[in-house]
Amino acid sequence: MFSQYLDKFSGGQIYLISSLGIFFVFFIVVTILMFRLKKTHVNYMSDLPLEDDNTPKPFKPLQS
Q1: For position 45, what pLDDT does the model report?
Q2: Which residues have a Cβ under 8 Å from the Cβ of 59 and sit 6 or more positions away?
Q3: Are 17 and 10 in contact (CB under 8 A)?
């Protein structure tokens, strides 16, 4: 089925299909990374703009 479509593609359509594929791969990777974030890191980053004092909280790096 897909081979029939691939046979009909001209040069310009290959760029369109490949850019669509790159678009979907990028957003799938971003979605996976978003779900893997730890809740403590998200809370830390969300509280940063609300800090009033000049001494920031100690940053704990993410551990994979």
Answers
A1: 82
A2: 44
A3: no
Sequence-distant (6+) residues with CB within 8 A of 38 are 62
Q: How far is CA 61 from CA 13, 14, 20, 64, in A?
A: 44, 42, 34, 10
Amino acid code (one letter) for 61: P
Segment 42-49 mean pLDDT: 81
Report in angstroms the alpha-carbon separations of 35 from 14, 39, 43, 57, 59: 32, 10, 14, 24, 21
Residue 28, token pair as written in the block? 């799938």
